[in-house]
Design goal:
This protein starts with 5 loop residues before the first strand and ends with a strand. It folds into two domains: 6-12 and 116-192, Periplasmic binding protein-like II (D-Maltodextrin-Binding Protein, domain 2, 3-Layer(aba) Sandwich); 17-107, Periplasmic binding protein-like II (D-Maltodextrin-Binding Protein, domain 2, 3-Layer(aba) Sandwich). It is elongated, with a radius of gyration of 18 Å. The protein is built from five helices and ten strands, in the order βββαβαβαβββαβαβ. Strands 1-7-10-8-9 form a five-stranded mixed sheet. Strands 4-3-5-2-6 form a five-stranded mixed sheet. α4 links the parallel β8 (138-141) and β9. α2 (70-78) crosses α3. With 193 residues, the chain is α/β, with parallel strands linked by helices. The model is unreliable at 1-26 (pLDDT under 50).
Length: 193
C-alpha cells in the first residue's frame, strides 16, 4: 500500500499517563485499564506484554481490560474501580476536573522523547496538499474525547481556517484504525490517525 499525504502535528506534547488508583480489587489480581483509542485486538497486542511485565515485577496477576468508551474509562478511574490505567492528556484533564488528582506513575516516551507526532492523512492519489485544501471535503475523526484523533487535529484545522462548518461533512469513527480505513476506502477525503 502506497502512503498518502501526511501532515504532522509538529511539537504536539502528549503526556500519556499511567495512574495508580487506591487498590480496589476484591481478589489478589490487579486491573490495567486502557481507553479505547485503538481496536481491542491492537490494544491486547500492545498492552499484554506490559500487563505480563507488571505482573511479574509485582508478584501478582495483572489483568488487561479495555474500557468501552472514554467516559466510562474516566468514571472507572475516578471511582477507584481499576488499579493501573493508561489514558491521554485530555482524559486526564477531564478526570482531574471531575474527580480530583490521581497520582501519575509515568508518561509515555517515544523514541526517547516524551511526545510524538500524529498525522492528518489523505489517500496517496488525493489532490489535497495542505490543510486548507480540506475545506469542502469529508473528514474522519476518531473519538470525540480523543486528544490525538479529535482535539489536536480539530485545533489544527481551525488554525488553517477549516473548522467543521467548512467541511462538506465529518464523522466520528470511534478509533484511529477506523479513521485510516475510512480514508483508504474513500469514505473520507482526510482524517486524523
Amino acid at each position: 500500500m502506497k502512503s498518502g499525504h501526511m501532515y504532522p502535528w509538529s511539537g504536539c506534547l502528549l503526556l500519556i499517563l499511567f495512574s495508580v488508583c487506591p487498590a480496589v480489587s476484591t481478589a489478589d489480581d490487579l486491573v490495567l485499564a486502557v481507553h479505547p483509542y485503538q481496536t481491542s485486538s491492537t490494544i491486547v497486542r500492545a498492552f499484554t506484554p506490559l500487563a505480563n511485565y507488571l505482573g511479574e515485577a509485582l508478584g501478582v496477576k495483572v489483568n488487561l481490560d479495555m474500557s468501552p468508551n472514554y467516559d466510562t474509562h474516566i468514571e472507572r478511574i475516578g471511582k477507584n474501580q481499576v488499579d493501573i490505567v493508561y489514558l491521554g492528556p485530555a482524559s486526564y484533564v477531564r478526570l482531574v476536573d471531575k474527580y480530583g488528582s490521581k497520582p501519575i506513575l509515568a508518561r509515555q516516551v517515544v523514541n526517547g522523547r516524551p511526545y510524538f507526532k500524529g498525522k492528518i492523512i489523505t489517500r496517496s492519489d488525493s489532490p489535497i496538499k495542505s490543510l486548507k485544501d480540506l475545506a469542502g471535503k469529508r473528514f474522519a475523526f476518531g473519538d470525540p474525547e480523543s486528544t490525538m484523533s479529535h482535539l489536536v487535529p480539530r485545533y489544527m484545522l481551525i488554525n488553517a481556517g477549516v473548522d467543521v462548518d467548512r467541511l462538506s461533512g465529518y464523522q466520528f469513527t470511534g478509533s484511529h484504525d477506523n479513521v485510516a480505513m475510512g480514508v483508504l476506502a474513500g469514505d473520507f477525503d482526510g482524517g486524523c490517525a
